Amino acid sequence: MSEQMSVSRATFDEVMVPNYNPAAIIPVRGQGARVWDQEGKEYVDFAGGIAVNVLGHCHPALVSALKEQGEKLWHLSNTMTNEPALRLAKKLTDATFAERIYYANSGAEANEAAFKLARRYALDHFGAGKDQIISFNKSFHGRTFFTVTVGGQAAYSDGFGPKPGAIDHLDFNDLAGLEALISDKTCAVIMEPMQGEGGIIPAEQAFIEGVRALCDKHNALLVFDEVQTGMGRSGYLYAYQKYGVTPDILTSAKSLGGGFPIGAMLTTAKIAASLKVGTHGSTYGGNPLACAVAEAVMDVVNTPEVLDGVKQREAWFREHLAAINAKYDVFKEVRGMGMLLGAVLSDKYQGRARDFLTAAVDEQLMVLVAGMDVVRFAPSLVISEADIKEGMARFERAVAKVAAA
Fold this sequence. Notes:
By secondary structure, the protein is an alpha/beta fold. The chain folds into 2 domains: 9-58 and 304-404, Aspartate Aminotransferase, domain 1 (Alpha-Beta Complex), CATH 3.90.1150.10; 73-301, Aspartate Aminotransferase, domain 2 (3-Layer(aba) Sandwich), CATH 3.40.640.10. It is built from 15 helices and 17 strands. The strands form 4 sheets. It has a 7-stranded mixed β-sheet, sandwiched between helices. The protein has a 4-stranded mixed β-sheet with strand order 1-2-3-15. A 4-stranded antiparallel β-sheet has the order 13-14-17-16. Strand 13 (331-337) and strand 14 (340-345) form a beta hairpin. Helix 3 (60-70) packs antiparallel against helix 12 (288-301), helix 4 packs parallel to helix 12 (288-301) and helix 13 runs parallel beside helix 15 (385-404). The longest helix is centred in the last third of the chain and has 25 residues, at 304-328.
């Protein structure tokens, strides 16, 4: 084998499209909730690859599944199915409201499929003209042109030419606004049970129940984007189960593969029937490698031990954040559920979320932001109490530095 080329952060600027601005460090190895960079410096990971590394780095069950499948079968076209895809689909349908599964490679692709299905279902059952999609301001549903237009952040969709039409937005948790906007022309209402990129904003119980009732009244499909909240992150397999409100279509990705790219759309048999042969597809969707890893994720996560453990870890996180805030008074509140939490900055620190992220990296801790005013935490669901304590000690040092600046 030829010797590996030496690369650095400077290499990024030489060879990569400049749509990202990555940190100065380059991680090269991870184990559990710890990551090491090129210099051998060790970091605690409270970011989880943006809510992806649901079981941390290099979890033995996932490594084993990947190695085992890697020596059997890597890829087939969709003119054939495969065992890992079928086993995973069976486990997903057994554990949820869904009866049918469609596989993609990402959350954006799962949402693209969901939106296309909603439009096609409305056409099949109600005829032309029932095509309005209602979404919410600050929502995020992916970066394809359709999904980014449905998403409620115009900054991500502006500047690329004419946008797909019949898409309307209103404020999250505004039930009266939805009641005024929805009609028999609405084919679907799309929402995250808890807005992620928009600032870790949970749906109010009365709102999510009201949305379901309005969709039923107007024969509109209710689509839950659980790309970020799904696969155990809320302390339930999917957050809809916490709310007790069942969607017609649900999308899953991120944590579903534990770090291996996979997306899935879950729905009922009746609705799925509108995606007849040839109406939609994906070259890599249902890839045996991805499905084998996701099946291992499902087997570990969908257990009382892990799901109850998420609730315990949420309590530990909240206790530590409250103690830090008692000293430095930097947060208004901590929002969220399970291992997807957002510390909302107080008025004095408005717009400075990235300062906290940068200070955390300097203290060898990886965190996230959700907008300019929220520090976001999305760690492994099985992170140890010791790693939480160590990470929070580092976070406190970061907070102290920002507060003293």
